[in-house]
Amino acid sequence: MHSRLADDIQNWWTSNDNAVKDNGISGIARLNKGFDPRVSPDTYYFTVSFDATRPFPRGKLSGQNLQNFPTYPRIPSWVFPGPFNFFANRIAGGINIAHNFVRATPGYPGDVAYVNWFVDFFNNCLGLLGYQIRLPTLGGRIPRADMLPALSIFSVGMSGRIELSEQNDGVVDTSSMRTPENQPVQGIQAFNLAAVPKNKGVYWDLGLTEGIDHADEVGVFTDPDMVSSAIPNDQCRG
């Protein structure tokens, strides 16, 4: 069996006709260039979309975060962080108050912008050291805790790409699930039940379901109890 398949698998892997190539930025551009998004007037089109991300959290510093902060000159532990992190808690509280004030000022670039500055700085250091890897910059959303860990790094990278929607299922961005780019789409609520044939040639979106990542959709690495217990009913729409 190995002898029969080896050459075919090698040809498939080195070609552009696989999901690894298709799901990259250049692969997406190539597919879009050769894809005709026009609908057929004789076909019914139904789409459904998923999202396994949540908004980027508003960080809040705590004394525990500061207790191991290196100080120079060295400060005695009874002063910092102090008994039961007393002084560290006071300093963290003051920083949080100042941070909230800065957040409210006009023109504040946002926490994500500062995080991405550190990411770019770290990536620059990796490049100087000769490492051929880069950490992805963040967007306004991050993976949910229940997303398959193997997909989380891709989700972060997708959210940080301004040409994609920040919502995604770990593999595909949510807006692409609804309809091809720049194509009209209608909610399923407007579907004409009285004259069904008139609904041909239109993308009908069945709605957004939250808390479902790509592995859940295709049915791999999925907890068998997930459907009945992991997602509250009020989080599912469509």
The radius of gyration over CA amounts to 24 Å
Overall pLDDT, averaged?
86
Low-confidence segments, ≥5 residues, pLDDT <50?
230-238
Biggest sheet: strands side by side, in what order? 1-5-4
End-to-end gap: 44 Å
Main pleated sheet: 3 strands, parallel
Task: Describe what you observe in this structure.
By secondary structure, this protein is an alpha/beta fold. It has a domain at 32-55 and 148-238. 39% of the residues lie in helices and 10% in strands. The protein is built from ten helices and five strands, in the order αααββαααβααββαα. The strands form two sheets. The chain has a three-stranded parallel β-sheet. Strands 2-3 form a two-stranded antiparallel sheet. The longest helix has 18 residues, at 86-103. The two termini are 44 Å apart. Residues 230-238 have low confidence and may be disordered.
